[in-house]
Design goal:
It holds the Pfam family HTH_1. InterPro entries: LysR_HTH_N, LysR_subst-bd, WH-like_DNA-bd_sf, WH_DNA-bd_sf. It comes from Pedobacter steynii. Keywords: DNA-binding, Transcription, Transcription regulation. It is a single chain. The chain is α/β, with parallel strands linked by helices and about 300 residues long. Among the domains are: about 90 residues, Orthogonal Bundle (Arc Repressor Mutant, subunit A); about 100 residues, D-Maltodextrin-Binding Protein, domain 2. Helices cover about 45% and strands about 25% of the residues. The chain is built from eleven helices and twelve strands. Helix 8 links the parallel strand 8 and strand 9. Helix 2 crosses helix 3. It starts with a helix and ends with a helix.
Length: about 300
């Protein structure tokens, strides 16, 4: 339904490469150049400018990209609403999930959703919370699920499911046989931490402050980018780590990792669905409702 030239422009603008856009659209690079040139003639403005071996959007290009993103969102809603009239649900939905959710929560939801709505095409992007929120703001995804405490005023947050973050160690660690650890004693141990921008790390930092501790008070031996890599490191070291309970089912069952209780500390949080402020588009709303029903939520 949309002008193909706008699809070409959008693809170039997102990749900042004529070559990559041509590959993504299965057309030749001269064809990409031709479509962009036609748009520039139509609007009497340069849309891209060269900087050495790279290109970047001009102010006119930035403006056209904003309108194009809005227009494509309208087209998706038109497709959904018109298909609904004939009891069909089809289209494309781009989702984003932060690391813990992508690894331990979302796969069963995606599988169940596809069983119900086989004509809806799904695409999943994963990264830390900061990256998923940026992807939403850049309109690279329609709907996200994230962890974390901070809130961006441009984003709408809907509570999804509750999570608990616990302190764990390997089965061979001396603390695996002890009772409760004091907050002050945390300073005596080495930790494996998630990277900056992680929602898990943000929540831990907030909880520690309530005990009068800062993240800098803990001895960080290494920083890793996923729960799986942290768990593997723990099993081969004397470190401790804070991990979501959702990521520990297998290890707690087989006894390879142990939870350590900390006096006065309980780290609970929600995972959140996120979308841009305003009305949720049709496909995103269907997925959100599907996820809530899957967890018996309203």
């Amino acid at each position: 339904m949309s002008d193909f030239r706008l699809e070409v422009f959008y693809t170039v603008a997102k990749r900042l490469s004529f070559t990559k856009a041509a590959t993504a659209l299965f057309i030749t690079q001269p064809a990409v150049t031709k479509h962009i040139h036609e748009l520039e003639q139509q609007y009497n403005n340069k849309l891209f400018e060269r900087k050495g071996n790279t290109i970047q959007l001009t102010p006119a290009g930035d403006l056209l990209l904003s309108h194009t993103e809005t227009l494509f969102a309208i087209y998706r809603n038109i497709d959904f609403d018109m298909n609904t009239l004939v009891h069909k649900k089809e289209g494309a939905l781009s989702l984003g999930a932060s690391t813990t959710i992508a690894h331990y929560i979302i796969a069963p939801l995606l599988a169940g959703f596809k069983k119900k709505f086989e004509d809806i095409r799904l695409n999943l992007v994963n990264g830390n919370t900061e990256q998923i929120e940026k992807a939403l703001l850049d309109k690279e995804i329609d709907l996200g699920i994230v962890e974390g405490k901070s809130k961006n005023q441009e984003i709408s947050y809907t509570e999804f499911i509750r999570d608990e973050i616990v302190l764990v160690c390997s089965k061979d660690h001396p603390l695996a046989r002890k009772g409760v650890l004091t907050a002050e004693a945390l300073k005596l141990h080495s930790f494996v931490m998630r990277e900056q921008g992680s929602g898990t790390r943000e929540v831990i930092d907030h909880a520690l402050k309530e005990l009068g501790l800062k993240m800098a008070d803990l001895k960080m031996e290494i920083q890793l980018g996923s729960t799986e890599s942290i768990k593997s490191y723990l099993m081969n070291s004397s470190c401790l780590a804070f991990i979501s309970i959702h990521g520990l089912a297998k290890e707690l069952q087989n006894g390879s990792l142990h939870i350590i209780d900390i006096a006065g500390l309980s780290i609970e949080r929600y995972f959140y669905f996120i979308h841009l402020q305003g009305k949720l588009d049709g496909l995103s709303e269907i997925f959100l409702r599907h996820a809530q029903l899957a967890y018996n939520l309203r």
